[in-house]
Amino acid sequence: MKSRNLFVGILLLFIGVVALLSTIGIINFHWSIFWRLWPFWFILLGISLLPVNEYVRSGLLVLALALGCLFYHIENRNYEGNVFQRFFKRHFTQWTWNDDHDEDDADDQTSSNTADFLAAQHFAEPYTAVEHASIDLDFGAGVLELKSPCAELAKVEAESNIVKYSFRTEHSSNSAAVYVTGTGRSKGLKEKTSNHIDLYLCDVPVWDFNLDMGAADATLDFSPYRVEEIDINGGACKLDLKVGDHGIDTKIDVETGASDINISVPSGVDCQITLDSAITGKDFKGFEKIERGLWRTPGFGQGANTITIDLECAVSNLSVERY
Q: Are residues 69 and 124 in the same domain?
């Protein structure tokens, strides 16, 4: 076996083991730890180049792989974030919510620990006769759920002890744009953090949905809504997304880090998937592979409307199913 192939194979095996342990919840997956373990890659390369028989080399590589997983586990337990996160934690860990509502220098928030303070925030925008609407949601980390339709144009119910949200709406003649923006106000990173949003939308307009999230768990059931574009940018997240058949073309664009993504599309609509990913486990039931990185449903292009899905992910588990 060529040394280069052996080295690459062991490297991929190591990344796969760590990603699998992260997927089943045993450890947390952080790319920055891989770069901090750069001497380990030289060890692997050196073993693969040793002039010894295959049995000795294989034994050394297995031992190195086990030690690499152990070192990753130790680093993961003491993980303080990437270089940027460590910088901000060391220099800006004492910034907090400014809850002053008067002119003195005292903070009206009596608790010094924001992790013990759970703020409920509610926003709503009345529905007016608009044909098209968009929502731009800056979420961060936490749990996000898209609920059943409401009478308002958009309604947000949030509970968080690490984020304060602002809500505004811009109107034009026959359209509206809703912006939900979160700003962190935490004294460092706490274990007992909470950030949860329930989102409700009106099912009359055609929607564009833009979501920027971090390490989040998002359940987005768009099946009751007419949606034209869904744009999601996330970190290491878990995403369950469902769209319906409302007689319009729908474009879904998802760009994430190490994630678990499940997308459900109606069986009566033509669908296309394009995938750009480093290492993935994928399950595209009911799709035909056209070429590398491209899948389509049988007879694609013959239906009245289409759903196009563009996926760009790191180490991820992907599933697209038809219902």
A: no
Residue 83 has pLDDT above 50, yes or no: no
Sign, Cα dihedral of 193, 232, 29, 219 = positive
Residue 79 has pLDDT above 70, yes or no: no
- Which letter does DSSP use for residue 318 in this model? E
Note whether 79 and 124 are same-domain residues. Answer: no
309 within some domain: yes
Q: Which domain holds residue 268?
A: 119-322
Pair of tokens at residue 130: 């608009």
Q: From CA 203, how far away is CA 149, in angstroms rounded? A: 6
How far is CA 319 from each of CA 61, 240, 259, 263, 294, rounded to the nearest angstrom?
A: 33, 10, 11, 6, 14
Gap between the Cα atoms of 76 and 74, Å rounded: 5
DSSP labels, 133-194: EEEEEEEEEEEEEE-S--SSSEEEEEEESSEEEEEEEEE-SSEEEEEEEEEE--SS--SS--
- Asked if residue 107 belongs to a domain, the reply is no
- Report the domain count for the chain: 2
Domain boundary (83, 108, 142) is at: 83
Torsion of CA 11, 16, 21, 24, to 10 degrees: 170
Element of type H or E holding 311? strand 306-313
Q: Tell me: the pLDDT tens digits for 101-133?
A: 444 444 444 444 444 556 899 999 999 989 999
Of the CA atoms within 13 Å of residue 202, those in its CB half-sphere come to 22
Q: Of 156, 186, 188, 187, which Cα lies nearest the Cα of 169?
A: 156
CA distance 313 to 261: 10
pTM over cut 0.85: no
Do 294 and 273 contact (CB within 8 A), yes or no?
yes
Examine the pLDDT at 295 and tell me if it is beyond 90: yes
User: Are 16 and 279 within 8 A, CB to CB?
Assistant: yes
Same domain? For 311 and 193 the reply is: yes
Contacts of 25 (CB under 8 A, 6+ apart): none
For residue 242, give both structure tokens.
Answer: 């469902």
